[in-house]
Amino acid sequence: MRLLSNQITDYLEKSSWIRRMFEAGTELKKRYGEDRVFDFSLGNPDLPPPKSVAGALHAIADQSERPYAFGYMPNSGYPAVREKVAEALAMEHGLEVAPGDVLMTCGAAGGLNALLRAVLEPGEEVVCPAPFFVEYGFYAANHGGVLRPVPAVPPDFRLDLERMAEAVTEKTRVVMINSPNNPTGQIYSEQELRSLAEILRDRSSGRERPILLVSDEPYRFLTYDGSEVPSILKLYEQSVVVSSYSKSLSLAGERVGYLLVNPGMEGKQELMDGLVLTNRILGFVNAPAIGQQVLERALGSQVDLSIYERRRRLMCSVLEQAGYEFSPPKGGFYIFPKAPGGDDVAFVGRLQEERVLAVPGSGFGFAGHFRVSFCVDDRIIENSAESFSRAVRGQNC
């Protein structure tokens, strides 16, 4: 007897490499002990939230007897929260943002699903550079769409604009970027994005429904060496920004994020009306009440970036001394080295033999590389050095 659909059965067989490595890590930690397994598989922020988050939670708890401290809200989120988020985003992107341009969502994932549900017709395509966040294909398929990845250009994984232009066809409804990128840490330059915008503007000419440019930006706050993340809102009118506070405020698991529709978009109210509807009918309804109330009090603060900067240096040093080829990330907390020998799945298996957990690039649509996440304690990075070295030596034997 079968209970699942063919599609979900297929998904289970091709389940996320990240989760597979997480499960493998659980077994290794049972066998060898937590301190002897070096787990770089998950992008799970381990920094404490800023003090403003604790203060906000205390303030919310102190008001728990007030009517409506918990309760339903407008489908777009609490008005006061949308106003605060709009003010913050106006400063971030350097343009005027009204509360009506912002929709509070269940994290970036909820926001992306609400958006794709609102704009995709069955069979329409979502173009994105590869490597890409592992769930994008599932999100597109959830709403009848098809993900069409376009390989970026190694070693720094800049956009291949020529191939992106070839991939944009009459079936394209959305072009989606993730900058800083998970898993490469690449930040797409303003010139790259300006060129991409010109392509989309040209291909949208004469269409009843223009191509949307969507930027997934949960790592916007986390950049290195003076790098900045250009705003797509200034470069392309038909654009939407999606993000969350899981990394910047270490609120992973609280599922609070937002959609920002370009304030200059023609017909933006129609899109926002559709987003408010899909945010509800998909079952998300709203970003959590507590998470939104925390944001109202904690916006403007963030985790200690110097810790991630230090860990980046440590991780790069470990990989460099062991002989790996990689481009230092410009943002985020991932590095995407080249897999020695070329077979990323086999090499990740070799790392696992040395009690190092990483994720094959195949899981991100880009074979031949692997991802390490350095949002872990400094000691894990430092103590992993010999294991990374042995994995390379074993590959070369």
Structure commentary:
By secondary structure, the chain is an alpha/beta fold. It has 2 domains: 6-49 and 304-396, Aspartate Aminotransferase, domain 1 (Alpha-Beta Complex); 52-298, Aspartate Aminotransferase, domain 2 (3-Layer(aba) Sandwich), CATH 3.40.640. The protein is built from 14 helices and 12 strands. The protein has helices spanning 6-13, 17-32, 51-62, 79-93, 107-119, 136-142, 161-167, 190-204, 268-281, 289-298, 305-322, 344-353, 378-383, 385-396, and strands at 38-39, 102-105, 125-130, 146-151, 172-178, 212-216, 239-244, 257-261, 334-335, 356-357, 359-360, 370-373. A 7-stranded mixed β-sheet has the order 2-8-7-6-5-3-4, sandwiched between helices. A 3-stranded antiparallel β-sheet has the order 9-12-11. Helix 3 (51-62) crosses helix 10 (289-298), helix 5 (107-119) packs across helix 9 (268-281) and helix 12 (344-353) crosses helix 14 (385-396). It is globular, with a radius of gyration of 21 Å. The model has no long low-confidence stretch (mean pLDDT 94).
Topology:
Blueprint: H1 6-13, H2 17-32, E1 38-39, H3 51-62, H4 79-93, E2 102-105, H5 107-119, E3 125-130, H6 136-142, E4 146-151, H7 161-167, E5 172-178, H8 190-204, E6 212-216, E7 239-244, E8 257-261, H9 268-281, H10 289-298, H11 305-322, E9 334-335, H12 344-353, E10 356-357, E11 359-360, E12 370-373, H13 378-383, H14 385-396
Parallel strand pairs: 1-10, 3-4, 3-5, 5-6, 6-7
Antiparallel strand pairs: 2-8, 7-8, 9-12, 11-12
